[in-house]
Amino acid sequence: MTGADPGLFGPESVTWQLHSDPVMWIAGVRALYLQALHPRAVRGVMQNSDFRRDAWGRLMRTAGFVGTTTYGTTEAAERAGARVRKIHRMLTATDPDTGERYGLDEPALLMWVHCAEIDSYLHVARRSGLRLTDAEADRYIAEHHQSARLVGLDPDAAPGNRAELAAYFETVRPDLAAGPEAREVDDFLLRPPTHPLLVPAREVLWRRVAHLAYASLPPYAHELYGRPAPAPAAVTRQLRLAGLLLRRVPARVRWQLPPKHILRAMARLGPGARPAPYKLGR
Question: Per the database record, which ranges form the ER-bound oxygenase mpaB/mpaB'/Rubber oxygenase catalytic domain (predicted)?
Answer without folding.
Answer: 16-247
